[in-house]
Specification:
The chain has 5 helices and 5 strands. The protein has a 5-stranded parallel β-sheet with strand order 2-1-3-4-5, with helices on both faces. β4, α4 and β5 form a beta-alpha-beta unit. The two termini are 12 Å apart. This is Response regulator transcription factor. It comes from Metabacillus endolithicus. Keywords: Phosphoprotein.
């Protein structure tokens, strides 16, 4: 079972994503801000980290930089309403592996995660 960290400060969206991914059989840890996410990353190994761009304490971008400075190679997907090409480029240059624009459907997210983790269902 793949283990995923979701860092998202919007509670309703976080609940929707957690419920969707748990229904698909993923093990999910959740964080409501960048500091909580960073603490969980230091304590656990994840197959994938899903980050919101705009969060309290550390933004998703700042968190990616912290993760990569510590040489943590876990795959990272940024989830963001900031979907201009310049924003996507910043995210990828900081060390994210993937970018998904908000809003997205739960089905789109599951399909993308399956693709990233190489899982067929």
């Amino acid at each position: 079972m793949s283990k995923i960290l979701l860092a998202e400060d919007e509670e309703v969206l976080r609940m929707l994503v957690v419920d969707t991914l748990e229904d698909e059989g993923y093990s999910i840890n959740e964080a409501c801000d960048g500091q909580e996410a960073y603490d969980l990353i230091k304590q656990n190994d994840y197959d994938l980290i899903l980050l919101d761009y705009m969060m309290p304490v550390y933004t998703g971008l700042e968190l990616i930089e912290l993760i990569r400075k510590e040489n943590i190679q876990t795959k990272i997907m940024m989830l963001s309403a900031k979907s201009q090409a310049t924003d996507q480029q910043k995210v990828l240059e900081a060390g994210a592996d993937y970018f998904m624009s908000k809003p997205f459907s739960p089905i789109q997210l599951v399909e993308r995660i399956e693709e990233i983790l190489g899982e067929a269902r």
